[in-house]
Design goal:
Length: 227
């Protein structure tokens, strides 16, 4: 049987992890005024990119303290199995995130330490974070210049670029930045806010609670594919 090649676009915060890491870092280590900036973002007054540009300079933390928090972030227990399935079937699996590469790489390395080969080398497209003493310096390496949406990481631009060559595109996510992809994806796996946005816009989506559900949906998709 021919294996259908998928391009799978997966969000990170609240999708692979149980929490939003950026928000947790801000709660723990930022000046409390980060919350007012968050309110402005929720009210639509600031873009995702602008909000991070304003919030992250409010963070003061020793790298050791930050690493301790990063080491405690819980990952979906079935994500590793999902990464293996993608590697075995040669699906393109891409993590697209408005979060920061610094902790995404650390968290993935820990979560995938038991696996081998391409299962543990998932391409990550996220914002950049470096420490200059105890201050965070951030960057937006993925297309903020050409982005019309105000993204921190332009997920739609990456989607267009990376889906080439795949037979079907799959989006897995929970938030507003994933909605931009859900509109054009062949299959959407959604939870929380994304599920509601999809319902409101009439976009078909499969609800998922954890990656056990994602594995099941992808396997069903393969079984039903005849070409
Ligand atoms: Mg998310
Ligand atoms: Zn964009």
């Amino acid at each position: 049987m021919q294996i259908m090649k998928l391009a799978i676009f997966c969000d990170f915060d609240d999708t692979i992890t149980r929490i939003n890491v950026t928000d947790t870092v801000l709660e723990r280590f930022a000046d409390p005024s980060w919350r007012e900036i968050q309110e402005d973002w929720l009210a639509g007054k600031l873009s995702a990119r602008e909000v991070l540009q304003k919030q992250m300079p409010l963070v003061t933390v020793e790298p050791g303290e930050l690493d301790a928090l990063i080491d405690s972030v819980e990952v979906d227990p079935f994500f590793g199995e999902f990464a293996v399935l993608c590697a075995q079937n040669k699906h393109g699996l891409y993590i697209l995130s408005d979060g920061f590469d610094y902790w995404i790489h650390k968290i993935l390395r820990r979560a995938l330490s038991a696996y081998n080969g391409s299962a543990k080398n998932i391409p990550v497209f996220a914002c950049g974070l470096n420490f200059e003493r105890d201050k965070a310096a951030i960057s937006f390496p993925y297309f903020p210049q050409g982005c019309i949406h105000g993204c921190a990481t332009c997920k739609p631009a990456l989607f267009e670029r990376l889906k080439a060559g795949a037979e079907k595109s799959v989006v897995i996510g929970d938030g507003l930045s994933d909605l931009l992809l859900a509109r054009n994806a062949d299959l959407v796996l959604a939870k929380n806010g994304l599920r509601e946005f999809c319902d409101r816009e009439g976009i078909a989506s499969h609800a998922f609670h954890d990656f056990r559900d994602v594995l099941q949906t992808i396997k069903t998709l393969k079984e039903n594919y005849h070409d």
